[in-house]
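Q: What changes when protoporphyrin IX containing FE is included in the input?
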Amino acid sequence: MASTAPKINRQFEQLPWEANTAPHRWDVTPPDIYVEDCWHKVFAEMRTKAPINKIEGSDFGSYWNVTTHRAIQHVEALPDIFSSSYEYGGVSLAPLGDQDPNDPDRIVMPMFIAMDRPKHTEERRVIAPAFTPTEMERMSSEVRQRTGEVLDSLPVGESFDWVDKVSIELTTGMLAILFDFPWKDRRKLTEWSDYAGNIELFRTPETRHKRLEKIYEMGAYFRRLWDERASKGEAPDLISRMIHSPMKDMDEMEYLGNLILLIVGGNDTTRNSMSGYAYGLDQFPAEREKLEASTELIPNAVSEIIRWQTPLAHMRRTAIQDYDLFGAPIKTGDRIALWYISANRDESVFDRADDIIVDRENARRHLSFGYGIHRCVGARLAELQLRILLEEMAARRLRPNVTGEIERVPACFVHGYRKFGVELSKY
Ligand code: HEM
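A: The predicted holo structure follows.
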């Protein structure tokens, strides 16, 4: 007879943890494992053997790996203990706040993703109304029209770079609408975002310097837009929203920081979910056929693709008090890497987690957008953009078939593709 006793989640009775010194195979910061797409096994091993473990002395310093779905949710639900603040180094493992204070390139750009309460709440409140269901409704016809135009410009039966022609083009257009950014210059958003979001550039003073140059160029451009709009009335674009809010008194660095947040936050991520759609469904042709036969599965498939791709591999927190994390002795000042890429492959939550299953029942439980007070404020817009892309592909009965070499982003933060060839066919 089946037992009626409540099911105990053994994973959380006691989590084994381990301390290791880099180089160690559980140091998952080196970019090669993402370029070569061989991260699955190492995270699976951690989840089984020591879901929370500490790496000492990696290139990005010492940090705790947190690799399971529930442990990550647990940490994110305690923002007063596990801080996001830039004052402690912010939300990625890149040693941004931990640089030598004498380094002339050590500058701090506060952005609200890297703030704690109450300031985080105050600034998020200004931005969040740009992403309400009503705003999504307002933007959707423009997004749909532009998506259709891009798809209609693509060659059929001829190979092209999907990342450049579709993912980048559509995401950049979406950001341009959000900022009401001059259309002809929209590719600048892509360039700035690529520099600002590339944490590999922190490795040498030269590359740090180059990155800063690009950020200042972006700052000067956006300063002009700010000045032009300051004299005008309220408008729904993100710059006007900041101008007509308590954020109007931000200093230059905080303006820059928040721009980077909104541009990088919206750019690399959405772009890589669109690339994940073309690449991922090509890996699972039976699922692609299922989706082609039943377009009502598109909204769920959108969540599943975002889960499977996990466009941001991790977010970081810093402990501001000692804490016993399921047996792991976290100390004040410790850096914690929340590996969403691993949580989304956690077999205790997702069956056959490495597979795309377009009608997966719990696809929406993915952690690609994070969890808790910092959960992605742009999630609805990202889902809207991807849903419209899938719907417009279906309306044209177009299927992307991967043809060319895949080049992946060499980083443990943005998880995605630099380019790959695709040939469209009709079904
Ligand atoms: C598939 C696409 C996207 C993914 C995977 C993604 C992922 C994330 C993640 C992981 C976080 C941090 C969550 C946490 O710390 O718990 C975040 C926060 C954020 N995202 Fe996104 N994002 C996406 C699209 C967008 C878009 C389109 C925008 C806006 C243009 C955006 C703007 C932001 C902002 C402003 C935050 C900070 C929220 C806060 O701290 O309260 N994101 N996103």
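Observations recorded in class: The mean pLDDT is 91.
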